[in-house]
Every structure is written in structure tokens, then in C-alpha cells.
Amino acid sequence: MSVAPSSAPEIPADGEGGFRLRFPVLGNLGRAILANRKAMAGAILLAIFVVMALVPGLIAPGTPGAELYPPGQGASLEHLLGTTSYGQDIFTQFIWGARASLIIAVLAGLLSTILSALIGVAAGYLPGVPDGILSLITDVFLVIPAFPLVVVIAAYSKTGGNATIIAVLVVTGWAYGARQLRAQVLSLRNRDFLVAARLQGERTFRIIVSEILPNMTSLLVANFLGASVYAILTAAGLQFIGLGNVNTDSWGTMLYWAQNNEALQAGLPLWAIAPGLGIALLGGAFALLNYAFDEISNPALRPARGRGGRSDP
Q1: Residue 209: helix, strand or coil by DSSP?
Q2: Cβ pair 232, 105 in contact under 8 A
Q3: pTM
Q4: Measured torsion, CA atoms of residues 157, 158, 161, 165, in degrees rounded to the nearest 10
Q5: What are phi and psi of 145, to 5 degrees?
Q6: Most CB atoms closer than 10 Å: which of 5, 156, 163, 261?
Q7: In the chain, what's the furthest Cα-to-Cα distance?
């Protein structure tokens, strides 16, 4: 993915005809989201889930695991999604489950992106032996089947809870982003402004932090969003098959208990549908937001503007 030229980034010229790329991500991101219906839908969905995660007690007062109600009840005004076979309120479980699912997605996505940046940027900027070693490590993790490895690691640390799941997701989810970031750094390494910085004697760490990373912000955020989608789906899959702490309040564990109690056959479809829909919508929110960053990074993906300022269909 190349750094967006022309209209998206500000490109002030250097004194000797080179370029010092600068990326006003926040302003461009806001305009890209407003101009893209898919990205706007993703932002709205994500905002809803963030509110659910921050103040679940205001939306669904009570304890998710409390067995206080008649079991196996259908949807009603008192229980919007019905009750489980254990007498728990499904709506309360759904609202409280958003917190754990969102925490797993954000933390796993953030840590994976940081690890990808450390390895990918170092491999791309440091030629020779460091690049060879780091690229070899990245290639090894790329060719290993991710999900079987996730299952094996999670199975050996079954009692670790969400922290273990996050660690497993980070270990297995960083390599693809590192490969993308390395390719981007290789395209920037010989630009005039980096050559000038090296000739001025600037340290490697300062060049990476102040010169390279600001020009890769959109790609870093896109990698974070992609890693978050991977974390959401994989964590839910692990929890669904009983890996991790099945007593935590998350959508994956809701699916686990719904499947164990044959919710569909017992006439309690909302017990399984609600968390499945939540997982799909949360993953979709991150994926839709990625459209905005794709437009920032790649001008060819931006919709054409008519004379009235509207996007052409």
C-alpha cells in the first residue's frame, strides 16, 4: 500500500527538491468517514458498542450470571431477549458481554500492531543481517496455519481467561501487518528527506519515530482495524469451543452455553442469535471503518466528486 500523494497528505517541498511527507490523519480521517457511507455506518456501530461497554449497568441493570428468573422464557417486555435455561436474562448478558469482546478486540489489535510496527519497520529500515533475520521470523509465522496454532496454545493454557486469549491472538496475528509495514518502509527508505536526515547524523531511532512512522499512520491504523477483526472472530471461536474461561461475560461464552444447552432445539433461538449478531456487527464496524483509511492511503479508491461536491455513484 503506497502513501497517498496529492490531495490527501500535505507534501511541503524540501530545500533541494525532495519531499518531506506529512500526514494530517485526523482531519483526513474525519472527511473520509463523512464522505463514505460505509465508514460512517462503521463509526456509528462502533460508538454504540463503546457506550454498551462503558456503561452496561445503565442499559441493563443487574448481574449477567444471576439465576433469578423463570428458565426458558421467550422474549417479553420484562425480558427483551428472554431467559436462558438457567434463568438468566439474555439481554443483560448481551449488554455486559460487549465489554469483554471489545476489550479483547482493542487490546489484541493494538498489541499486534505495535509488534508488527517494531518488527516490520526495523526489517525495512535496517538492511543486511537484521532485515534477513526479522524477515525470516515473519515468514515463519506467515506460513504456520494460524487457527490450529491458536487452538493448540489456548488448549494448553485453558484457565488463563481473556489475558491468555489476547496473548495468543497477538503471537499469531502480527506477521501479516509486519510484512506490509516492511514493504512500505522499503519504499520510503531512500527518499530524499530520509537521506538528508541520515547525512545530518540523526539517530536511527529518531528517524524512525519522527520521519518514518508519521508517514505510515494510515497503514498502522488499517493494520490495527484488521487485527481487531481477526481478534474478534478468533476469540469468539475459541470461547465457543470451550477454550478460555467459559464463566466470563462475553459473546463467545454466551454462544458456548447456548450450544451446550441446545438453545435452538429448546426454543431459545435468541440465546444464540443475539451474541452471534453482536460479534458480526462489531467485526463489521471495524471492517467498515477500514474503508476510510483505504481512501486516505489510496487516492484511486476515493469516490469521484461531481460539480456539486457529491460522490458519484
Answers
A1: helix
A2: yes
A3: 0.77
A4: 60
A5: -60, 120
A6: 261
A7: 77
DSSP state of 211: I
Grid cell listed for 154: 489456548
Decide: 181 and 216 in contact? Cβ < 8 Å: yes
Q: Answer yes or no: are the C-beta atoms of 26 and 36 closer than 8 Å.
A: no
Which one-letter amino acid corresponds to residue 76? S
- Enumerate residues 6+ apart whose C-beta is below 8 A from 180: 1, 116, 120, 219, 223
pLDDT of amino acid 25: 53
* pLDDT value of residue 303: 56
* Assigned domain for 3 exists: no
3-state helix, strand, coil in the chain (%, to 5): 70, 5, 30
Paired residues of 305 in beta bridges: 311
Domain carrying residue 172: 25-48+102-301
The identity of residue 49, as a single letter, is F
Is residue 232 a contact partner of residue 283, using CB atoms and an 8 Å limit? yes
Q: What is the pLDDT of residues 184-220, one digit of tens each?
A: 888 887 777 777 877 777 787 788 887 788 878 878 8
**84, 120 contact by CB (below 8 A):** no
pLDDT digits over 138-193, tens only? 988 888 777 777 777 766 666 667 788 888 888 888 888 899 899 888 888 777 77
SS3 23: coil
Residue 58 covered by a domain:
no
Q: Residue 22's beta-bridge partner residues?
A: 10
Domain assignment present for residue 59? The answer is no
CATH number of the domain at 277, please: 1.10.3720.10
Count of domains for the chain: 1
Handedness of CA 170, 172, 177, 182 (dihedral sign): positive
Work out the burial of residue 129: count CB atoms within 10 Å of its CB; fewer than 13 is exposed, 13-18 middle, 19 or more buried: exposed
